[in-house]
Amino acid sequence: MSGGSYYVPATSKWPILGSLALGTMLVGFGMILVHGLNGLMMAAGFVALLTVMGLWFRDVIKESRSGLYDAQMDRSFRQGMAWFIFSEVMFFGAFFGALFYVRTFALPWLDGEGAKGVAALLWPDFTASWPLLDPPGDVSGAREVLSPWQLPLANTLLLVGSSITLTVAHEGLKEGLRQTTRNWLLVTVLMGFTFIALQGVEYYEAYHHYGLTLEAGIYGSTFFLLTGFHGAHVIVGATILTVMLLRILRGHFAAQDHFGFEAACWYWHFVDVVWVGLFLFVYVF
Fold first, then answer.
1. Which CATH code for domain 10-68?
2. What does the domain layout of the chain look like in residue ranges?
3. pTM (2 decimals)?
4. Residue 258: what are its φ and ψ, rounded to 5°?
């Protein structure tokens, strides 16, 4: 690899195998929704997808550790990660957009406001409010809403704090302080999985004590779509950081050459920012 060269990875089977695994998982999920079948096919696709991702990342790590990547490849990785995070911004933007549309337009229309206020003829006693605890028609709503100042606040403090601890770990790596990196990264990982545990407790409380479920009208569906997908991203991010911790323990990364670690940091900070938006617009306002 000389100056100005560009490393082209060898032909790989992982993209097509990953596509097949993902397709199997989604078809299995669709069969559960449409036909009520068991989740064996979806589970098999999920396991296959995790296996492909693990083996694919293993190959990338080996190539990086072998010195095959140059500055051009580093730029390619950075651009790829930036576009990936942008796609995630658009993903959550769609769900936030649905939430804002319902609150800003749909509910006032149902209450008789504006040009589309004729919808009020269907439910003349309907009063627009958010959260919507008593939806019109046969839709059951939540009995109560979760207080933002208990578990949601604790989870907010955990995620914001985890961004701080991760930044300390990253700065330690850039300074060559590997023990500092290891310790603070371990704290970050523990905070991430603690967040997931607390969210599990919150979901249990919502379902069993507040009547807040996916079937609890538009409030229930938007609540679980936003917080559920975010929770899935936290699981992914905490898993990635766990891999980064294992790589640190094995002596991987250098002070000036550690984009794998940096990309994990980008992803985790993005997840934290999304949660702050969720805390404000789903729980508080």
1. 1.10.287.70
2. 10-68, 88-284
3. 0.88
4. -155, 50
Cβ atoms of residues 120 and 126 within 8 Å? yes
- CATH for 88-284? 1.20.120.80
Provide the token pair at 210.
């507040």
Tens place of pLDDT for every residue, the chain, 285 residues?
445 566 677 788 999 999 999 999 999 999 888 887 778 999 999 999 999 999 999 999 998 888 888 888 889 999 999 999 999 999 999 999 999 999 988 888 877 776 555 555 666 676 777 887 765 556 666 778 889 999 999 999 999 999 999 999 999 999 999 999 999 999 999 999 999 999 999 999 999 888 888 888 888 899 999 999 999 999 999 999 999 999 999 999 999 889 999 999 999 999 999 999 999 999 998
Long-range contact pairs involving 202-210 (C-beta distance under 8 Å, separation at least 24)? 202/146, 202/151, 202/152, 202/155, 205/146, 205/151, 206/142, 206/146, 210/142, 210/143, 210/144, 210/145, 210/146
Task: Let me know the angle formed at the C-alpha of 89 by 83 and 91, rounded to the nearest 5 degrees.
Answer: 105
